[in-house]
Amino acid sequence: MSQPTLDHAQPWFPHPQAAPRCERDGDTFGIAANGTRTCVGGWQLRFVGIEPGRRYRIVADVTHDGVGEPRDQLRCSAHWSDLAPGAHPAGSGINDDTLPHFDGPDHTRFARELAAPDGCEWLTLRLTLRWTANGETVWSPPVVEEIEPVEPRPPVRVAVVTGQVARRSGIKTIAANIEFYAGTCEAACRAGAKLLVIPEIALQWGVPGHGLDLALPVPGPETEVFADLARRYGARLCLGMWERDGDAVYNSAVLIAPSGEVDGIYHKVHLAADGEDVSGTLPGDGFPVFDTEVGRIGCNICMDSSCAESSRMVGLGGAEWLLLPIMGDHRADRFTPGPPIHNDGRWLAIQRTHAMDNQLTMVIARNTVQASCIIDRKGDVLAWNDGDQDFVLADVPRDDGYRCWTGGCFRGTNWMQRRPGLYGAFVDVECFGSARP
Prior knowledge:
Blueprint: E1 5-12, E2 21-25, E3 28-32, E4 40-48, E5 55-65, H1 70-73, E6 74-79, E7 95-97, E8 99-102, E9 107-115, E10 122-130, E11 136-139, E12 143-147, E13 156-161, H2 174-190, E14 195-197, H3 211-214, H4 221-233, E15 236-245, E16 248-256, E17 262-267, E18 289-292, E19 295-299, H5 308-316, E20 321-326, H6 344-358, E21 361-366, E22 373-375, E23 381-384, E24 391-396, H7 410-416
Parallel strand pairs: 13-14, 14-15, 19-20, 20-21
Antiparallel strand pairs: 1-4, 2-3, 3-11, 4-10, 5-9, 5-11, 5-12, 6-7, 6-10, 8-9, 13-24, 15-16, 16-17, 18-19, 21-22, 22-23
């Protein structure tokens, strides 16, 4: 396999007043701040020998001195074109960010594996210093090497399995719930579903009694019914239930693998106010993301949806999917006293925002069926239940290739724009936002 070669290097800057001081010493590339806070720019290096569809590993090492916040002030971006030195990258072709790895106070490595898009002949790397009046950097010669291709990943057929509320008449026992949901899951499996999501506390929903009395062990005889389905159809199920764990009871989302094994459990973190939170149910203490055969999965349950941090933590964990068993979201009902009246518009605004903000596919299973849905990371609704279907299906691509109008990757742009050093209030236990007097 032929390897790309560097054939041209030149300084770049958006405006003469912003230009940093750039010096080349043999194979290394120096970028120093110009003493003003308008400073932004550096070197751009053009590589030839790029072949569309091939996969490349890009590595660029930089040592720095006097750079206050490397996460903000250093950048190495990849542009799949012969980019002019003063060109704004937006709309100038396909572009990607490499990801920084901080190897100490004065060294950062930018690296990423990327596929060359159709039609490209060049790769231009921009090595950038920005947003600082001080500091010096020395970049080692970047390495661009072709690597083995990755096999395309097939789409995943996803089902939101709720059954119709009208069919639930008379269900008052756990055994009846198991029969109801297992039968509906089997119908979805026969339709080809490989990832199935069932509503919140589905096994105990509508059963008289207290959650502390109705909770079940995991795994147990009740979950084995669904484990058998998983094994027979090679499917993965997310099962909502009250879980008994020794002296604790959790509102849980239980992941059952195609092998029938329980390989993940999420415990609801934000218990519903003025009821569940004082019921004896114990809240969870984290947002795990599970590696599975259909991709990385995270979960929220019901009231978790009301806290932006819940989906954000799942997204930060690298999830491709957020599974959400839910009874409802209080923000998607009336804003006046009285019986709740569901509002589809606000519901979609909430769930589409979760999907787009965190660049994952939302799979939402509502106990009362209406508004159960599947939403991709563009915010598009792939499947929707008006309340009259036992389940809804969607084939969700894993290798989607979604990009912004600028040519940037949806996921890359979404995560690389973040400035974590400014988000201290997110974890300040004494911050109550606008609830403060």
